[in-house]
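Marked as duplicate of an earlier ticket. Keeping the data here for the record.
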Amino acid sequence: MEPWIPFIVMVIFTIVTGIVAFASGALKRGEE
């Protein structure tokens, strides 16, 4: 296992989490 793989996974996970949080927040604002 390459030493940079965990870093790449962490970055991807952070980006995906941010997108999901932003999308859910935008949906909640749109419903109101």
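See parent ticket for discussion. The helical segments are 5-31.
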